[in-house]
Amino acid sequence: MLPYHIVASIAQYIELGATTTPSVIKSGAIDIPIPSKELIPLAAVCQSWRAIVDPLIYRVAAHCTSSDMPHTFRNTRIPKLSVAIERQKQHLVRQLYLFVDFSKLFTAESLMSFLDFAENTSGEMTSVYKLTLIPTYSESTYLWRSPSESEAAETMDISTAMEKFFKCVRSLTPNARIVATSNGSCYRSYRRSVKNHDHAMALLPAMFAERTTQLVIDHINLSRPQLDKLVPGMLRSIYISGLKGQQCHIELIQRHAPWLERLEMVNFTAHAIVKLTWGHTPTTTRSYPKLKRLCIASIVGLRAKKMRQPTIDPFPALEVLDCQTCFPFATSVVLEGGQSHLRVLKLRMDNQLFGVMEHSGLLRESSFRKLEVISLGWAERSPVGREEFSERMLLKSFLIGAKTQVMYANRLTIPDFDVVLPKIHFASTLRVLDFKETALTIAQAVVLLSGFSKLREASLFLREVPGDRSKRMPTPEEVAQFNKRFIDCQSSVLFLNICKTQFVNSRRAGEFIVLMTDVLPSVLCVRINCSTTTRTERVRKGIRFTLQRPIYQNKRVQDIQFGEES
To answer: What pLDDT sits at residue 459?
Structure first.
């Protein structure tokens, strides 16, 4: 029998393979992981293997309060809590996803059924550390109406029902530290009919207030009584989404400012985000001394200098700033402070922000002393065309990080890349290069990749040479000329990800991919993952056809692994 540590290693490898598959449900921050089906046969090998594999198989479980599991999930491989209980594995469950059927929960029969279930199961799920509540509605919206007298006799008051319901949830998962609620996803068509339920679901975090360290509030409106129940000092991580009720959301974050380590905000106004930094007086700035990660997305409204801005760096320990939207701060205080401690900087730029950063000296060589990951993209709603700033932004991206290991070139439009290539600062620290949104010819790609001495992985968008609309394959003479041109090419890149191609046809795309990799001596693997499965398969077919040509026989390119990106 294999030693335990080897069995565990095999099982963990299979589990990691499952993380690359599409999520079964994605609603804002809610994402249910599915254990790999390859784990199941391992559990049947022997008792020793089962002891290691079972905690992976039953790590995640889902339960619906009614018998009507949402159709979106009915035929999926979501592990059922009932199955875990039947096999006496409920003590292994670490993450519980609770689908609450609000169209039936408030009937006495449905609620009592769940209460009985919770009572019989209580005390057996002490390992659950993450609890996620997801609303479902099994009945049509047209059935949402004031109940008749006979119906009212069987329907419980919402407040009473929710209080009983959440007490049972707490007894079911007494040690939950991560609590998530979501009213987003495909159920938005019901939102006007379930405002009371939206209010009631916000009670869930309050039920676990004494021990919750991570809170996810996705499209849930907080009220002040609920806010007051969330005792400051416990929360370390907050994900919060929604445009309504922002005042309570902002106060929730501010109350936990001294302890927060991670903050993600989606669908907020620029004013609300700047307000996070307001101190108790107009001249003071609120500090988040432990905040290491700040992610902002989908900002509404523009930044304005007339708004009260922070006077000192409010995030002195910040390591990750991921702003995939308009940057909310009108001054450079946050970025200037970040020069000494930011490791990851992802910004959507516009001409105004670019000017502010340039004027403040933030775009000079090695201006960010600890920066390892850099992504300077272009804001979609910027009034200025991308071409005017794209070249400068690309060059600055390669330049500003003193320890840059990963660099993304996002949404940059550069008409003549040959003019830009000689100006690039080829950082000796760069390990990963992402150019999947910026088109390159294969000649440009070879020059670019060969310039970095320690590059290991690159993602590319390959295109035809501008003006060349030929449908024929390159002749042996043209292939020989290309190889001769780059005969002294020295590259270190091991893995290439071809994420997009723009050629006359897929066969020609495959030909040029093979031609490019033939002159890069270090490449071991080329993964093809175009925009569609059909496109990907056609390009791979073109590669297979190309490798059969006599000019590529007995050459190193035959040893390169060409496959689809996992």
So the answer is: 95
Span of 105-109, 185-189, 237-241, 561-565 with lowest mean pLDDT: 185-189
CA distance 550 to 281: 77
How many residues are given for the chain? 566
State pTM to two decimals: 0.81
- Residue 410: Cβ-neighbour burial (10 angstroms; 0-12, 13-18, 19+): buried
CA distance 429 to 452: 8
Q: Tens digits of per-residue pLDDT, 277-307?
A: 999 898 899 999 999 999 999 888 878 778 8
Q: Rounded to 5 degrees, what are φ and ψ at 97? A: -105, 115
Relative to beta strand 26-27, strand 30-31 is antiparallel
pLDDT classification of 20: cutoffs 50, 70, 90? very low
Structure tokens at 465: 């040479």
In which residue are the tokens 């502010």 written? 356
Identify which of 174, 169, 82, 165 has the alpha carbon closest to the alpha carbon of residue 125.
174
Through-space distance between the first and last CA atoms of the chain, rounded to whole angstroms: 31
- CA-CA distance, 175 to 194, in Å (whole number)? 29
List the one residue out of 137, 208, 138, 207 whose CA is nearest residue 178: 208
> Does 530 or 342 have the greater pLDDT score?
342
Question: Residue 234 burial (CB < 10 Å; 0-12/13-18/19+)?
Answer: middle
Kindly tell me the number of DSSP H helices and DSSP E strands found in the chain.
21, 19
With a CB cutoff of 8 Å and minimum separation 6, the contacts of 146 are none
> For a pLDDT cut of 70, what percent of the chain falls above it?
78
Q: How far is CA 415 from CA 9, 174, 323, 409, 412, in A?
A: 48, 59, 26, 14, 10
- Copy the structure tokens of residue 405: 């290991």
Indicate if the pLDDT at residue 200 is higher than 60: no
pLDDT at residue 193 is higher than 60: no
Token reading at 396: 């600055």
DSSP H helices in 270-341: 270-275, 333-338
Q: Which amino acid, residue 522? A: S
pLDDT at 192: 45
Tokens of 28: 């804002």
Q: How far apart are CA 16 and CA 250, in angstroms?
A: 36
Distance of CA 466 to the CA centre of its chain: 35
Q: Mind listing the pLDDT tens digit for each residue in 81-101?
A: 888 888 888 888 999 988 887
Amino acid letter, 196:
N
Orientation angle between helical segments 108-121 and 158-172, nearest 10 degrees: 20
Instruction: Name the residue among 36, 76, 41 with its Cα closest to residue 56.
Output: 36
Burial classification of residue 468, based on how many CB atoms lie within 10 Å of its CB (0-12 exposed, 13-18 middle, 19 or more buried): exposed
Provide the 8-state DSSP code for 190. Answer: G
Inter-residue contact 180 to 218 (CB < 8 Å): yes
Residue pLDDT, tens place only, 307-319: 899 999 999 999 9
